[in-house]
Amino acid sequence: MQNHFRTLPTPHLFVQRRVQETNMSIQYRQDMPPPGGFDAIKYKRNLPFRGPSGLVILGAVTAVCAYGFYRVGKGNLERRELQREKVWSRIHLVPLLLAEGDRDAYRRQQAALQREREIMKDVKGWEAGKSVYNNTRYRSAESIVVL
After folding, report:
1. The pTM is what?
2. Alpha helices, DSSP H, located in 120-136
3. Which family does it belong to (predicted)?
4. Tens of pLDDT along 17-65?
5. Which of 10, 30, 46, 120 can pair with 126 through a Cys bridge, CB separation 3.0 to 4.6 Å?
C-alpha cells in the first residue's frame, strides 16, 4: 500500500499534503446548503425578565431604611416630649398630693383621738392624745399600712 501523504519542506514548518494518484479518479458530490441558505444560528441567551436589577433593589432598600430611621427619630422626639410632660405633671402634682396626704393624716389622727377618748373615758386622769413617753423629743405620728 502506498503512502498517500508526503511531507513537503517549507521554510518554517512541515505541511502534509494529500497527493492524489494520477490514475485514480474520485467521484464525489459536494454537500451544498439548501436554496435560500440555512436558518440563522441562535447563539444568544434567551432569558426572560427576572425582576428588578440589583441597583434598583439597593435603592429601594436604602429608601426604606432611610424612611425607617426618619420614623424612629420622630418617635424618639415624641417619646422624649411625653416623658418631659409626665415629669412636669408629677412635679406640679407634688403639692397637691402632699396636701391630700396631710389632710388624710389629720383625719386619721382626729379619728384615733376620738376612739381613744371613747375607749379611755372611764380612766381617771387620762388625757387623750397625750404622749405616754416622758420626753419632749418630736415623734411623727405612727402610721399603719393596711394591706
Report:
1. 0.42
2. none
3. Belongs to the complex I NDUFA13 subunit family.
4. 444 444 456 778 888 888 998 888 888 887 888 889 999 999 999 999 9
5. 120
